[in-house]
Write a structure and sequence with these properties.
The structure holds two protein chains of two kinds. By secondary structure, chain A is an alpha/beta fold. Chain A has eleven helices and twelve strands. Chain A has an eight-stranded mixed sheet, with helices on both faces. Chain A has a four-stranded antiparallel sheet with strand order 2-1-4-5. Classes of the chains: A alpha/beta, B alpha/beta. Chains A and B meet through helix 7, helix 8, helix 10 and helix 11 of A and helix 8, helix 9 and helix 11 of B.
């Protein structure tokens, strides 16, 4: 699509974690991301949801350039992100920023908030007065200017995450990756951060790639949702379509497993799909569809052939044999 | 639960302080808590509100010092646990009260096999088991692992915890905690470190097991949805105090304490409708906790009296109590608060 700001095409990231055998030394690989394709539209919030080990953070780290993909391509506004290998041009780095999950470890404890916020400013906007910019950034995220002199450990978890968001916005990016920005925080604090992020998105026309395992949060924040399981995307759809007509058996299992707080929500969940089995280790992904060991609708074909992405309606794609010709 | 029945566990006015460099952390501030036989009680509150401290005080596994208990009683079947000698206490731990911890990876010793950790539990669970041979104990050790629906339990006994997945480790912990047939099980965030689908499995398993054995349960969690699904009655805790107690259904249909209301609204809903702003401010410091009601610094309905006095429990219904001056019948009519969304 022409309005896609980020295009990901058959992206793979395999980590070698060890070797098998003494003579032939066959490598043991973890297929953290294994053939993922999607696009992120300008100005939207794409929710990338999955359980631990599904590869969602690996995608985030490749997008910001912390990892090199094993194969596949990523382009941002038509420019290949890995054209120079690991050395990404400064202008591109400025455009894509990230907020990490744990603000306790992503902020340097020996630096003041001023020093933390100045670093990206000095690097990317050397012509501006850094002090003035720091004040502007703090004002933007509704923190008083006195906070400049504080150290991260003097702030609460929520405030630290606000500082981390301000740092990500310091370079004036167009795409911000939010890697579980609120999962280390209590729910009473989560609301404040999320509402701040939504306001900033509107003000600066930001595009968010929102990584989380919290589907209830995505229902309220994302414009589209993609579900990952063991390094692959199983289903991707517009938020309202996704929650009203979930198609992939894994999505249904996930949605029906969410603990909810009211009867209305219970009715909004799909019929109970009893969760069985364990999530296989990414070192040892089962052949065929990686979900077939836990799937209530498993067929013979699922054990042998990995299904491709099938478009079932406008903007709604599912990777499941229930919708392929082989499965009919 | 009838009034004539005496509770299985009763905590009265429990105060726990921690002496640290720079002062005294006044963590628990007169906690009241009851569990009746066969009941599943939830304890909800956010990080740092004192849930785990309360439970560790019950089992007397708080590190002392720095912790000390200036006041309070904890009765288990009529006996004060805080006055017990350690020999008496070791009879309560395990057979009387058992605990499942949040992080099964930290709860299991990595250098011993599952069998090496489970077999002593079986041996000391019953006096009759003391003199059994190792082979007999091993055969008995298979039973709790089968109960928690683990495949191939014989092989598991020889496995090390690192060889198991997170969900399997938590099942082993559950099996171990229930192997002694305790009267009361304390489950401290049993699903928090697991993925949603695995959490669902583990919680359903735990639910079925305690139903079958009619074990009383205290479920500690910060996830409101889990409490709603698992418990009969709920205590809500804030900054070292119980602020509200009610049957689970009533609490979720009609939360009364401003903190409970704020918490419920802050949970993102699967039905959409945006995210509530949450509760302003942050948990107060335990070094200098606010006077009066500890929630008054963040409360939208704060009154003069809240600054001065600590609210006792007020009954809004026979089984629904709230520690908030808004519900003091003698002072004023209870407010017509907006129905919780």
């Amino acid at each position: 699509m022409s309005d896609d700001i980020l295009v990901v095409c058959d992206l793979k990231k395999h980590f070698v974690v060890g070797h098998l055998g003494l003579v032939n030394r066959e490598p043991i690989t973890v297929k953290a991301v294994d053939g993922v394709s999607f696009g992120v539209r300008e100005g939207e919030t794409l929710g990338l949801v999955g359980e631990s080990g599904s590869g969602k953070s690996t995608i985030a780290y490749m997008t910001v350039g912390m990892y090199q993909p094993s194969s596949g391509a990523m382009s941002f506004k038509g420019r290949d992100l890995f054209v120079n290998g690991p050395k990404r041009p400064l202008a591109l780095r400025k455009e894509i920023q990230i907020v990490f999950q744990d603000p306790g470890s992503s902020l340097n404890p020996r630096r003041t908030i001023q020093q933390i916020l100045e670093l990206p400013l000095r690097l990317h906007q050397p012509s501006k007065d850094p002090l003035e910019e720091v004040v502007r950034l703090l004002d933007m995220v509704e923190l008083p200017p006195e906070y400049m002199q504080k150290y991260p450990q003097m702030l609460s978890g929520g405030e630290k995450q606000i500082v981390a968001s301000a740092r990500a916005l310091a370079t004036n990016p167009s795409l911000v990756i939010l890697d579980e920005p609120t999962s280390a925080l209590d729910v009473s604090v989560q609301g404040k951060i999320i509402n701040l992020l939504i306001r900033l998105q509107r003000e600066f026309n930001l595009t968010y790639l929102f990584i989380t395992h919290d589907l209830s949060l995505m229902r309220n924040v994302a414009s589209r949702v993609a579900i990952m399981y063991l390094g692959k995307i199983c289903e991707i759809a517009e938020t309202s379509e996704f929650f009203s007509r979930p198609q992939h058996p894994y999505t249904q299992m996930l949605l029906s497993s969410i603990p909810v707080v009211s009867e209305e929500e219970e009715r909004a969940r799909p019929a109970k799909v009893i969760s069985t089995g364990e999530i296989p280790s990414p070192v040892n992904v089962p052949p065929g569809c990686s979900f077939h060991l836990r799937c209530p609708y498993v067929m013979e074909v699922c054990k042998q052939v990995d299904p491709g992405m099938i478009s079932i309606s406008e903007g709604h794609t599912v990777r499941c044999h229930l919708f392929t010709e082989a499965g009919q | 639960m009838s009034a004539a029945l005496s509770p299985l566990l009763e905590i009265n006015e429990l105060v726990v302080h921690f002496k640290v460099y720079g002062g005294v952390l006044k963590v628990l501030d007169g906690v009241q808590f009851k569990v009746y036989a066969g009941e599943k009680v939830g304890l909800v509150g956010e990080t740092g509100c004192g849930k785990t401290t309360t439970m560790k005080a019950i089992l007397r596994i708080l590190p002392m010092p720095p912790a000390h208990l200036p006041r309070g009683e904890i009765f288990f079947k009529g006996e004060d646990l805080l006055k017990m000698r350690s020999s008496q206490l070791s009879r309560v731990r395990g057979r009387g009260i058992s605990m499942i911890f949040q992080d099964p990876t930290a709860a299991l010793n990595p250098v011993f096999t599952v069998g090496q950790q489970l077999e002593p539990v079986i041996r000391y669970a019953l006096p009759a088991n003391r003199n059994l041979s190792r082979e007999q104990i091993r055969q008995k050790a298979v039973i709790p692992l089968k109960e928690v629906a683990l495949a191939d339990p014989e092989r598991l006994l020889d496995s090390y915890p690192v060889q198991l997945s997170g969900g399997m480790r938590q099942r082993v912990c559950i099996g171990m905690a229930l192997a002694t047939d305790p009267e009361l099980l304390i489950a401290d965030e049993p699903g928090t470190s697991l993925d949603v689908t695995i959490q669902d499995q583990v919680l359903r398993l735990l639910h079925d097991l305690v139903e079958n054995k009619s074990t009383s349960v205290i479920l500690i969690t910060h996830t409101l949805g889990v409490v709603r699904q698992m418990t009969d009655r709920v205590y809500v805790m804030y900054a070292g105090n119980m602020v509200e107690v009610a049957p689970t259904k009533k609490l979720f249909a009609n939360p009364r304490h401003p903190y409970t209301q704020g918490l419920m609204q802050a949970v993102p809903k699967l039905t959409g409708g945006g995210i509530a702003a949450g509760i302003p401010g942050r948990l107060p410091s335990y070094l200098n906790p606010p006077t009066g009601c500890r929630f008054h610094t963040r409360c939208p309905h704060v009154m003069d009296i809240c600054h001065r006095e600590k609210p006792p429990f007020f009954k809004v219904e026979a089984d629904h109590e709230v520690a908030c001056f808004l519900y003091d019948q003698n002072a004023q009519a209870p407010p017509k608060e907006a129905s919780p969304s």
